[in-house]
Amino acid sequence: MSTLTTSPAEIASSNASLRAFLHGLPGVDRVGADQRAAMLGTRSIKTTAKAQAIDLAISMVDLTTLEGADTPGKVRALCAKAVRPDPGDPSVPKVAAVCVYPDLVERAVDALAGSGVKVASVATAFPSGRSFLDVKVADTRQAVQAGADEIDMVIDRGAFLAGDYRKVYDEIVAIRQACARDAASGGEDAHLKVILETGELATYDNVRRASWLAMLAGADFIKTSTGKVSPAATLPVTMVMLEAVRDFRDRTGRVVGVKPAGGIRTTKDAIKHLVLVNETAGDDWLTPSLFRLGASSLLNDLLMQRQKMTTGRYAGPDYFTLD
């Protein structure tokens, strides 16, 4: 791909120009994408590399609780686990972030103070994204004011599927602006992770278009799913998104992260994704600052596999806390 000759703002100057740009992107060969993702998913790695991969995967986890029954106590317990995943082994790395609903951000911020673990908050009428823009903006601002380091927003899939790309673009821009911290509070602006909800986008071409649309609007990360819609993260979809961030960097010089979320439950799943990152986008993305794994049950399996490699035996089923 050649370097962009027009700015994102010029591309988004009208819905027609956005549509022309997005529909001018190369189409995705669905059969080829499925086959390549399946082939990469069969790659095996050596024992020493597997140990490193497990620790890397742990450091990339966004430990998540997004249930209506979430309590302050559950959030505090999750934060303790994020900082010290295995209480009996201080060599286990911390996870990347804890992800909670906006009204529980303050609890997470207090529990994680000084730990280096980020606080992420879903916002913008998660998971449906169906609300008024001023409500979505207020939701985001309140989460940022409460101390969220990262905002996971959901796009308006209805607008996207109806071809109203400009509406989706404008909403992402508005939410990115709402991620800014005021001068009095100081600190960096919250990073914006844009959830595409790929299970509702129907085609790989739509996944590619939505990825580019989010990046043009200023996303720091593009994320597959809310975890509330099936299918969620799949290897082929993640590969299409990795190709998009790779090509976006080649054409603009700006680097955007990727977060598959939902359905990644085992160490084998996590390692497949790391192989996919390395072979598609490159090892620049093999860092928690550019690749995350959105999960709740994954961490326990990573810890069990790590302990098996260290001690030669699996821990009992009640050794690690259930999240």
Automatic annotation (TrEMBL):
Signal peptide: none annotated. Keywords: Lyase, Schiff base. One of its GO terms (biological process) is carbohydrate catabolic process. GO terms for cellular component: cytoplasm. It is an enzyme of class 4 (lyase). Its EC number is 4.1.2.4. It catalyses: 2-deoxy-D-ribose 5-phosphate = D-glyceraldehyde 3-phosphate + acetaldehyde. GO terms for molecular function: deoxyribose-phosphate aldolase activity. Pathway: Carbohydrate degradation; 2-deoxy-D-ribose 1-phosphate degradation; D-glyceraldehyde 3-phosphate and acetaldehyde from 2-deoxy-alpha-D-ribose 1-phosphate: step 2/2. Pfam families: DeoC. InterPro entries: Aldolase_TIM, DeoC, DeoC/FbaB/LacD_aldolase. Belongs to the DeoC/FbaB aldolase family. DeoC type 2 subfamily. This is Deoxyribose-phosphate aldolase. It comes from Sphaerisporangium melleum.
